[in-house]
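Just scan this pair:

***
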Amino acid sequence: MANQTTVTYLFHSGFLVSVDDTLLVFDYWQGEEGMFPEKARLTQEDFEAYKRVFVFVSHSHPDHYDPVIYTWDRKKYHITYIIADELPQAAAGRRMKNGDTASYESMEIKAFDSTDLGVSYYVELYGVRIFHAGDLNLWHWREESTLRQIKQAEDDYYRACEPIVKERIDLCMFPLDPRLGGMFDAGINHFIMAAKPRVIIPMHWQRRSEVAINFARRGRTRYTEVLALTKPRERADITFNEAELIIHVHTPANSLFSDDEPVKKPEDDPFTDTDLPVDMK
């Protein structure tokens, strides 16, 4: 039996994943001024086609947790919030920490560890197995970290991944951050080899779409297809057959983005011309 899903890239680490009558919203963030075109942002009209909506927040960093999610009509659209336990107490929702599980009709949720704040999420929905990594990654700055720091980062990452890679994963969203400098793709490469997700989508690439596109060209294996969705509202319809994948990518028309909206110029982006780490203090 074929399992079908649609995944839509929004911005940074934000995605929509729809399966049948259910919509999942992961780590929605509207960005700072000029980053995320206003016409591409979520509105409540996006929820009308679904019987229920689940909004996931992996952790409290502002680029993953946008309080605008609480302005949506929770009752009208049957919205359930699944949030990391470390979010501020004012944040409402089902709180989860590493090892927690939650069950809803036709859906199972597991919270796994992260190598940053919060958790990563594994969701099985109508037979489709989905993993959103949040900020789980091999976070080391190869040119700046000491050997001891690198060894600690690697140990923490492999330890966090160990229970996750035992799960079957159809669709995965995983960080690929060029700020890490040399070997910035070590985390996602390990996850591909260890977990063998059927489809993996890079995220968190700091508005450098070429990073995701180039990785998609070279990162695929016989078990894993790497899919680069780099424009807001670009989506992929995916059919997971036992023997094959069927993927149709839909790129939004240019009319989605008006010319009068503020957009950061490339020279304002410190990561445009270099993969070397920068001082984030």
